[in-house]
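Late entry, evening session. Most of the bench is empty. Finally got around to the prediction I had been postponing all week. Sequence below, unchanged from the version circulated by S.P.
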Amino acid sequence: MWRWLCGCVCGTGIFNMNPLAAGIILLLTAYTLIGTKQSSQLNLIITLLSVLVILFVIVAGSLNINVSNWSDDFFPYGASGVFKGAAVVFFAYLGFDAIANFSEEVKNPNRDLPIGIIGSLFLCSVLYVAVSLVITGMVPYALIDTDAPLSVAFEDIGWNWAAILVSIGAFAGLTTTMLVGLLTVAKVAYAMSRDGLLPEFLSLIHPTTNSTFWGSMFVGVLAAIFSLLLNIDALADVVSIGILFAFILVSVCVFVLRIDDSATNSNMQTKGFVAAMLVAVCAGVVVTSGTLLTGAPYYVVLPTAISFLLPSLILISFYHLRISDSAQDSFRAPLVPYTPLLSIIINTYMLCNLKPVSWLAFAVALLLGIAIYLLYGVRNSHVRAINEVDEQDEIFRLAQ
């Protein structure tokens, strides 16, 4: 019975049955319906508990480190292995983006949002690296238990009480991750629905709890169905692909948003040229990644690397010559165009390290999203309606 609840594999590939995961998500979804403020309070308490357990792991684990575990073949799979591992677990590193999604509820967004995003990213990086050093110092990497690495590591040294504490912390961490994810996706659905890209009921606010009741319920039920039917490894890869792809689009948008209409007489042509160069960069990274992953010699890798270095240089030169950077926006990305270009290159390379079956699942999800946009979003977009009114006003003004 317990094995069935925790996940009884039925069939092969990406499908399985996990009623316990679906039940936990539905329970957390019910809690999000009472309001964002109450959910945030619970999330804060659980997050503090998780951080305390992580600090305990770092301090207690450092007392049982065998330094020789680090000296022998510190990078057993090389640089490509590092990027492949980062691509697979990229979804677990997410969370700071949730701060941006809740920007409308921040009292002083100009000051608090950059501090929150950069601060959380820095702290998470330090904690992730510290825990990774501790676990690999306690246990040789080849012997690490992939299902419960920290708990098993403490059990192996006889600290059973610590293993129980770590398990509680892991459960708390997973809980807060799911809670933040549900709140964030519901917030995104609310914003898209408000702009007309999704059905209107997703943006309805409950009169008592002031929560996006139907949006949160829709997101929670959909997530519960996925967790019930799909394998966790397959879900992790698909989510990582989606996030990496989204970050690439965000980096592309930085270029587009920096294009000032007053800086060029052919704004649409300028955007088209920038988009073409960015596509060339991504294509070049894909080709170069393929040669690297297949172990091609340097005289093959170097020419292919030029396929993304050359359009990158063209794009940088074009940006400094044609794009106006005089706009005084509240939020400014630093070192443009270098940071978005570097983001595009790294994220594209990480995408190339994921499994083909994950790409297939992502392609299906992407096509479904495009279909929803073309069949519903385009017709009901509020921005499109406003632009059509502006165009009609401009035509009427010119006619007079």
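Two things to note before I forget:
Residues 90 and 142 are 21 Å apart (CA to CA).
Residues 20-64+95-229 form one domain.
Will write this up properly tomorrow.
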